[in-house]
Amino acid sequence: MARPSHICSALTRWLLLLLVLSVAAFPPMLADPTYGPIPGMSDIYSQYWGTERPFPGNFTDPIFPTEDGPPAEDDYIWQNLLAAEWMIFEFYQQGVERFTEADFIRIGMPPTTKLRLMEIRNNEAGHLRIFQNMISPTSIKPGPCKYRFPLTDPLSYLAVMTVIEVSSMAFLTGLVQDAKVDWNKGALAAISQTEARHETWALIDLWKVSPFAGPADTTFPYANQILYSTHGLVVEGSCPPENPEYPYPLQALPPLWAAENTESMAPGAVLTLLFPDPKNQPVFDEYTQYYAVFFHGLLNLSIPIETAGYPERPITVTIPAACEAKGIIIALIADEEGAPTKESVVAGPAVILEQPAALGLALVKSGPNPT
Ligand SMILES: *[C@@H]1O[C@H](CO)[C@@H](O)[C@H](O)[C@H]1NC(C)=O
Ligand SMILES: *[C@@H]1O[C@H](CO)[C@@H](O)[C@H](O)[C@H]1NC(C)=O
């Protein structure tokens, strides 16, 4: 009969072996692009009707590099996008967990709403896997943080969902401009088309409006500024410590929004600017002329603003009446007309949803981005 100490050491050896095996087995498995369902070859990224997190959303650790060497030149773009995608995936996952089919029917939404949200959640899981695989083996693949989303009622959930999909076009067209490798530009454009389909479904089926955004969606060159504007959704200190800084490079500009008493966000409306983060306020130099710059379609329009009395005297600006009331308008504050460089931006950007107009306004009241 084995003595207790022998049993213990045998057990310890087994446990150690298990530990070594699991540490050794898990990260390299995920680091291997052929591990698990492959996007484009598996239908779980479309048709999976469970509530449990689909692969790779069910693995929450970052994936460590498996090779030594310099990062590929576009790795940081995919890392930024993967970190943003974790937020979007979680938004859908938590919505799928939180709301029932009946919740959506009760607020007048079609009976297929829950199924579609699951399908979008599955597409977003596919994006997680695609972005993980686009990052080269010499770079870390960031893991998820904890997020706080407005999940109180099904209507505001669908409103925020619509704004996420509509604004994803703006930062994806921006990331395309950052990418150096042609293949990556094409891949980013392909992802933006998927988001466009999600958006189109929401506009037609949920909100019963025309899905078209005029002849061109709004393209915005400083993608990281939009990514940073979502940082209020991340629970502070909740990200895996190994994750790279998000987004990288980081400007940490003061957030910009419209004051709560705003009556309209349509072209021609007068807005009172609100800088909602007391810890991150813009500092205006008294000898500099600042502009509110509005990006719409492929154009931008600059309106000089009066900053001298801020914060005692609020800053107001008129949304250019010349903009078509379609899609989105992106507004920011810059110290140069046309915000020709990312360094010229001093606050914002804010995404203004023009369509459906009532939704854009409702989001001002609730604030899509708690800071
Ligand atoms: C995640 O999902 C995959 C595929 O469905 C499964 O093989 C794997 O065991 C799951 N992993 C965890 C940690 O839940
Ligand atoms: C805004 O438009 C001006 C004039 O057409 C252009 O010079 C400038 O580069 C544009 N800004 C951006 C950020 O594209």
UniProtKB/TrEMBL annotation:
<protein>
    <recommendedName>
        <fullName>Ferritin-like domain-containing protein</fullName>
    </recommendedName>
</protein>
<keyword id="KW-0732">Signal</keyword>
<dbReference type="Pfam" id="PF13668">
    <property type="entry name" value="Ferritin_2"/>
</dbReference>
<feature type="signal peptide">
    <location>
        <begin position="1"/>
        <end position="25"/>
    </location>
</feature>
